[in-house]
Structure formats: C-alpha cells, structure tokens
Design goal:
By secondary structure, this protein is α+β, with helices and mostly antiparallel strands. It is built from nine helices and 14 strands. The chain starts with a strand and ends in a 5-residue tail after the last strand.
Length: 330
C-alpha cells in the first residue's frame, strides 16, 4: 500500500542541542517550537514485495536524488522500525519533495521524518495515537517529534523511548505570529546536526547553556500563553546565541554563520531600536528566522531582501499537523 503525507518543519525557541542517547535521539532538556505552514515536506511511502525487485533493497529518493551513505542508512533504519511494528517484510520505496532548502539548518529532517512516520504508518495500515507517532518520528530525527503536531509544541525530554514525546501547547490559530525565514545559503551545512549533537559536550559553554533551559522553558511557555512577542523573542534570541556559542567552541568547532547571517541579526536589532517588533532565531545553520507581527511583516520581509547576501525569504504562519493526501510523488 502507498500513502503520502505533508509535514511542516518547525522552529525551536528553546533549543535541543546535545543528546542523552544519540541512537534513540533522547534530548537532555525539553524544547519548545512552532510548526510552520510554508516550510513543508511532501513524503510518499510504499511498502510492497515488488519494490526494488531488481536490486533487492529499499528504494529511497529524497529531493529528486537517490539517497546514499549515512542518509540512506538513517532512512532504512527508520523503515526497519516501521516494519517491526507492523510485522511486514516488504521492501519500501520513499520519495520526498520540500518547499525550502534541505540540510541548511531549517529543520528539514523534522518535516521529512514526521511525514515519513505518518505516511509510513498509513501505508502499513497502522493507526496510532499522536503521542506514539511522535515517539516514532523522533527515532528518525529528534525534532521530528515536534513536527507531528501543529501550532505551538513542547517536546518532553524523558529518559526512555516511551517517555520522550511532544505535545501541543496551543493550536496553530492561537497566535498569528509571522516567521520570516531568511535564506542566505542553499548549500548543505558543513557539520550536520547529528555531528553537532555528538560534539556538544566538548564545549566549555555546554553546561551553562543547559543550566539556562529550565528558566527559558518557563518564560517561553508563559510568553506563548499570553501572546507576548517581546518575551518570546527575547528568549528565542538568547537560545539561538547560546546554541551557536556552544557549536563554535566544540571540538571540532562549527561556525555556521555567514556574513549575511550576521547582517540579518544586526538589522533586526536596528529595527527594534526604531520600535519595530522583530526578533531573530536560528538553528544549526546559516539561515535565519525573524519573528514579527502580521502588520510589520511586509516592511520586515522587504527590508530583509535588501540585505547583501540574502537570496530570498519565506513568510510563514503557524502551521497544522501532518496531513495525508492522495497526490503521490510516484
């Protein structure tokens, strides 16, 4: 059977960086994010004994290219978990197509594995509760646990597979914040997030960042519940800078920023001095998210596009959970 799902990437305000268990993608702290409506991945999954008959293996094509190396191994491990759940021995075919640059620090693995979880379970005829789907998606990518839900989401760290899951804090229509994604590079980042997580503990900044997360989580929850953009933006910026302080000081170090990254951050600070409600955050990559109000979005998006090195912007609203559809990629 074949199924297709569309899932949104998410942007974390309180970050996940460094793992308790790298194999199960168990984090060391809770995290909070927003699922996005215009940064999405469409994933088609089919399980059939006829798939890959000529090569005797799963057929995996991501973003129009045959998956190879570690990426292929990661997807196959995820498919193996789905097969164990269902008792299936069929080979799988997987295809994906995203609306934004992948492997550039924009949570493409979150939307990929959330979509793959929803589509794969549907293709196998398995109907599970969202919490369990979240734990399954996490096995592909930690942040995928959050993309199983729409809107404002918290991922519980837990200490075991069953206890590490995401849940919705508020739905997508709770608060019409805008997230302007600023694309300054479409090239895959030099250090993938999995390698960054593995190196995180070598940073002298790691313990300090981790110690701040409880306070930041409380502040972010309150900001979301009270729709306080200044409070949420302040936490989001602090978390972003702390994450990159860690990544820059690991062994080996990872400097994700480009000159345009810094220029965007400086412009956001300049706008705030002028009274424009704009706040930045970014995950492990050079591309930046700028949070603002619906009313200020046109000015912010236009101004960001005028910065040297900015290639384009994607204006996002809060998005919903993954949805199944009948338009397949193969």
């Amino acid at each position: 059977m074949k199924a297709t799902a569309q899932a949104g990437a998410n942007i974390a305000f309180v970050k996940y960086w460094g793992a308790l268990d790298a194999e199960l993608h168990l984090p060391l702290n809770n995290s909070i994010s927003l699922t996005l409506d215009q940064a999405t991945t469409l994933v088609t999954v089919e399980f059939s004994p006829h798939v890959g008959e000529d090569v005797g293996e799963d057929v995996i094509e991501l973003e129009g290219r045959r998956a190879e190396g570690r990426l292929r191994e990661r997807v196959v491990r995820f498919l193996d978990h789905l097969r164990r759940l269902s008792g299936s021995r069929d080979r799988a075919r997987v295809a994906s197509q995203s609306t934004f640059p992948v492997a550039t620090g924009l949570a493409s693995s979150a939307s990929l594995f959330a979509g793959m979880a929803v589509a794969g379970l549907a293709a196998l005829g398995l109907a599970l509760e969202p919490r369990e789907v979240s734990t399954i998606a996490r096995l592909g990518s930690g942040s995928a646990a959050r993309s199983v839900f729409g809107g404002w989401v918290e991922w519980v760290a837990g200490g075991r597979h069953e206890d590490s899951y995401a849940y919705p804090l508020k739905p997508a229509d709770w608060w019409p914040v805008r997230d302007v994604i600023v694309i300054v590079s479409q090239e895959p980042k030099e250090m993938p997030s999995l390698a960054g997580h593995a190196a995180a503990r070598t940073s002298p900044c790691f313990a300090g960042r981790l110690a701040s997360t409880s306070e930041h989580l409380a502040l972010a929850r309150t900001a979301i519940l009270t729709r306080d953009l200044e409070a949420l933006g302040t936490v989001a910026e602090a978390e972003a800078l702390l994450l990159h302080a860690v990544s820059m000081t690991t062994d080996p170090p990872a400097l994700y920023w480009l000159p345009a990254t810094v220029a965007v951050m400086r412009q956001v600070w300049a706008w705030r001095r002028e009274g424009v409600p704009a706040y930045f955050t970014l995950d492990a990559g050079p591309n930046v998210h700028v949070l603002t109000t619906p009313e200020d979005t046109p000015r912010v998006a236009t101004g960001l596009c005028a910065i040297d090195g900015v290639q384009r912007t994607i204006v996002c609203q809060p998005g919903g959970p993954p949805v199944l559809g009948d338009v397949h990629l193969f």
